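ok new one. same drill as before - structure tokens go in, u give me an amino acid for every spot. 335 of them this time. try not to just spam alanines like last time pls lmao
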């Protein structure tokens, strides 16, 4: 029987998961499990670049874990673990750092964006930047390369991280031999960027998200906040310019989306009615999962057990690969 290729996805626990996370990362990652040996990890050490409170990081980690389980991840069928439970990741990160050009890190979007913002505001260019943020792409490369990952589902705005990973792996392999698998990106183009309440990309930093598992009342309040233009119901409208439709089309079936699109174009659609319909659609889609999520969050010890069991399976893959890397570079100490 032919072994499946490995697909890996991580999510940084830096805020309550929202429908943008679901559409852009979690849903496509879960679908990959049908065709690949799927690994999913909670990137808790990555979160340390911004989250400095112990209790907050613990709670965010549990939120992400419970979210994925509630949305259908079966830990018996996949490998689901916490980054901090895999010590090999951090050893490989140091090795890879020694093969990563500083200029490559200087061009990383996350770092460069903060530098540009600082310069524009007249601040020191590295104000607010820690070494963890600067070397973030190296740790991400270790997350990926440690498991012989073949494919990584990414959003359009995350492509550069994988390109850096590929560059580092190619440099390492050129210096030694073909030890590290060169991963490929899988981009779900129809969902690349999820529209938020204000028309910008849905992001916690913009405060324009619809949380996955907030209460029914909270979700409704967020839906009613979606920004629309001032056109009257009888006026024709462009559905592709409507923030409500931009979210609706990801959850309704194809026939409903087509019918709604025509109603926009013909006139006769009220934004208030459209928001109510979107709210009902989100409630029917996520109400059962919300109940499961809340039950999981009541039992963090069980969440720990799931992640620890996943870490054991992950290390079965990681340890042999790191051993090859150690042998290649000439490190002879015991693992």
């Amino acid at each position: 029987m032919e072994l499946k290729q490995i697909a890996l996805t991580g999510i940084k626990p830096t805020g309550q998961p929202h429908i943008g996370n679901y559409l852009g990362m979690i849903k496509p990652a879960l679908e990959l499990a049908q065709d690949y040996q799927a690994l999913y990890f909670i990137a808790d050490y990555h979160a340390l670049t911004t989250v400095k409170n112990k209790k907050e990081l613990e709670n965010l980690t549990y939120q992400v874990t419970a979210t994925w389980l509630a949305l259908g991840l079966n830990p018996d069928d996949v490998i689901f673990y916490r980054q901090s439970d895999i010590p090999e990741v951090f050893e490989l990160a140091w090795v890879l750092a020694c093969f990563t050009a500083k200029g490559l890190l200087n061009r990383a979007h996350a770092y460069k964006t903060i530098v540009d913002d600082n310069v524009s505001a007249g601040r020191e260019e590295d104000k607010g930047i820690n070494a963890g943020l600067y070397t973030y792409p190296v740790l991400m490369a270790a997350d990926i390369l440690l498991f012989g990952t073949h494919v990584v589902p990414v959003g359009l705005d995350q492509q550069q991280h994988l390109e850096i990973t590929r560059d580092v792996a190619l440099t390492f392999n050129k210096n030694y031999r073909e030890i590290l698998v060169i991963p490929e990106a899988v981009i779900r183009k129809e969902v690349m960027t999820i529209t938020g309440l204000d028309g910008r990309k849905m992001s916690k930093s913009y405060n324009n998200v619809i949380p996955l598992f907030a209460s029914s009342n909270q979700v409704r309040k967020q839906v009613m906040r979606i920004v629309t233009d001032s056109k009257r119901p009888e006026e024709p409208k462009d559905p592709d310019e409507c923030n409500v439709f931009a979210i609706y089309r990801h959850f309704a079936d194809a026939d409903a989306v087509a019918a709604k699109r025509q109603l926009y174009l013909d006139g006769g659609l009220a934004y208030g009615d459209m928001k109510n319909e979107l709210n009902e659609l989100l409630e029917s889609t996520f109400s059962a999962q919300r109940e499961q999520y809340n039950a999981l969050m009541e039992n963090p010890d069980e969440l720990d057990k799931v992640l620890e069991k996943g870490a054991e399976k992950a290390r079965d893959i990681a340890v042999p690969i790191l051993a090859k890397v150690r042998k290649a570079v000439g490190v002879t100490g015991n693992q």
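The chain has a mean pLDDT of 92. and btw The chain has two domains: 6-194+300-329, 213-293.
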